[in-house]
Design goal:
heterodimer; A: 156 residues; alpha+beta; 2 domains; six-stranded mixed β-sheet; 2 helices; B: mainly beta; Immunoglobulin-like; four-stranded antiparallel β-sheet; 7 strands
Chain lengths: 156, 103
């Protein structure tokens, strides 16, 4: 009886410690995420945003990335975009709007189970270039498309 | 009632996954038209899509994503009965998730 009770207490303690450790791990990953978010979704010019995201790595323009987006957006609050690519080994796709206060709109890490295909809807403050950057095993590739916005999407 | 709606469609050996999330996605820069006060930032920061328990897409989102965001992904393969799970968390610590079965 005592043994069972002892082992029960032991088990509870270990489980508790494990839970605590995993909570701490989770908290640090949350903190790392928050730091990444704060850093990369900062307001500022496009060049700074690209520099923060990709550390000055060379970005090559590529025909193998397709951006499907209206060239004239009547409503900047909702601009549908689809980015797809035939490049091999794409690990992540980032979408940036050059003239938005915070240029990075989203970055998606895609596992090999997914096609390189992402649709989303963007807010655009004004007429601007939209850039899609694919992070592949062999470097960074980008495609650009200018979208004319007739009504801005921020503070409308 | 979940804030997430998921639809899937199998076609040509692939499965298109579409999600619509109801969320204000406030940038923190727009003003309330009545009070002229800034509306605090409130937007989704992280979006996770899993297929049968395995994370297949992990999105970091900023406030440049439209209100009530819509996303679509294409899964290679996908069988009837497979589970798609989508979860999000926002900058105010709210989270939500929804599970969907591919038909």
């Amino acid at each position: 009886m005592t043994a069972t009770r002892r082992s029960f207490i032991k088990k509870t303690l270990t489980a508790g410690a494990g839970a605590l450790a995993s909570t701490l791990g989770w908290l640090t990953s949350l903190k790392a995420l928050a730091a990444w978010q704060a850093e990369n979704f900062k307001q500022g010019p496009l060049d700074d945003a690209l520099k923060r995201l990709f550390n000055d790595q060379k970005i090559t323009d590529s025909q193998a990335i397709a951006i499907r987006i209206p060239t004239i957006a009547e409503n900047g609050a909702v601009v549908p975009i689809t980015v797809s690519s035939t490049l091999p080994d794409v690990r992540a796709v980032s979408i940036l709007v050059a003239k938005n206060p915070a240029p990075l709109a989203a970055r998606f890490e895609l596992s090999p189970e997914l096609d390189t295909f992402v649709s989303a809807r963007l807010k655009m403050a004004e007429t601007s270039e939209v850039i899609a950057v694919a992070e592949t095993g062999s470097g960074l590739y980008a495609a650009r498309q200018v979208v004319k916005v007739t009504i801005g999407g921020c503070g409308g | 009632m979940s804030s997430i709606k998921i639809r899937s469609k199998r076609e040509g050996g692939k499965t298109q996954i579409r999600a619509l999330i109801s969320h204000p996605m406030e940038t923190g820069r727009s003003r309330d038209p009545k009070t002229n006060q800034l509306i605090p930032a409130h937007h989704i920061q992280e979006l996770i899509v899993s297929h049968n328990g395995k994370v297949v897409a992990n999105g970091q989102l900023g406030a440049s994503i439209s209100k009530d965001p819509y996303f679509a992904f294409v899964l290679k393969g996908g069988e009837p009965g497979d589970k798609i799970r989508i979860e999000w968390s926002d900058n105010l610590g709210n989270t939500d998730s929804e599970e969907h079965e591919i038909k």
